[in-house]
Amino acid sequence: MSRGPLFASVRHPATIAVVLLVSAIGLAGCGKKPEAEAKPARPVLVATVQYLPEAPARSFVGTIRPRIETDIGFRVTGKVAQRFVEVGQSVQVGQPLGSLDEVDLKLQAEQAVAELNAATGVLANASAAEGRATELRSKGWSTQAQLDQAKATGDEARARLNRAERQVELTKNSLSYATLVADTAGVVTATLIDPGQVVSAGQAAVRVARFAEKEAVVAIPETLIGRAKDGTATVSLWSEPGKTYQAKLREIAPNADPATRTYLAKFSLPNADDKVALGMTATLTLSDPNTERVARIPLSALFSQGNQSSLYTVNDGGDVTLRPVKVKTYESTDVIITGGVDDGAKVVTLGVQKLDPAQKVRVVSALSF
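Above: the chain sequence. Below: its structure as tokens.
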């Protein structure tokens, strides 16, 4: 049986070698393993590093009070005729606050004027008598005793005139005191008189709080008295929490309140503007500028190699980097660090001992500490 041209060509030794080579290459290609697939990104839990003062700031609720609050009263006794102000009303320097009945004061002023006129007449007569006695004595027609008597009478008349003049001035002042006026700009916080009421000299009539100086009054616990004296204080209003005012301790009570065991502290507000109204509620914050800034990290995030402690940081691309850190103290669940990673950096918190630095990671949750 004839096998044809193909089989004839295959019998040639060179051809047979080529066929065997091609077959070997084909078998080798069939047995080649596929390339290793890339590892998927590993999910990790991270925490955001946040540096804060080691001694945290403390806040207290207080009220805005005037530094000086004065009880203003009439300087003379009398019956209240009118009261011109009410609680909460703003007053300016010289503004009338109230008035007394002026009838008796006017009578006293008229009496003083009459005494002055009488004293003037008496002095005129005494001066004339003293002149005549001096002339008679110079001519030898009078005795020295008569001259001395005339001079004494004249001195008495002059003293009486001086006293009458002072009395007139006093009665004029008393008449002016019948109108109570504000001696400073401020706001009325209390009215203690009403028309028809009889008041004595110096009795409190109207209470005025000065606008010029304002302060925040808060209760400080005894553990923070040192920070109140040496630390930095700021005040913010509940009505405008976004704005702060610098405060300075002006006064602290020498004794604690028997009920709360706190000390009443008064902080002056030198930069207070018109938005700081009396009676407003404020928050006073005390901070220590000398305290060290530290970050609190979960203890599980710490990776130790010999004597060096490190943290794995994660960037936005999912790459992890091992960074050495400065550890200050260890706590039961946290570690306190002072440096080594930047503020706001993200660090891996779980499984750091098995983390492969060459493997990409995927953040599944983030915590802030």
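The longest helix spans residues 103-138.
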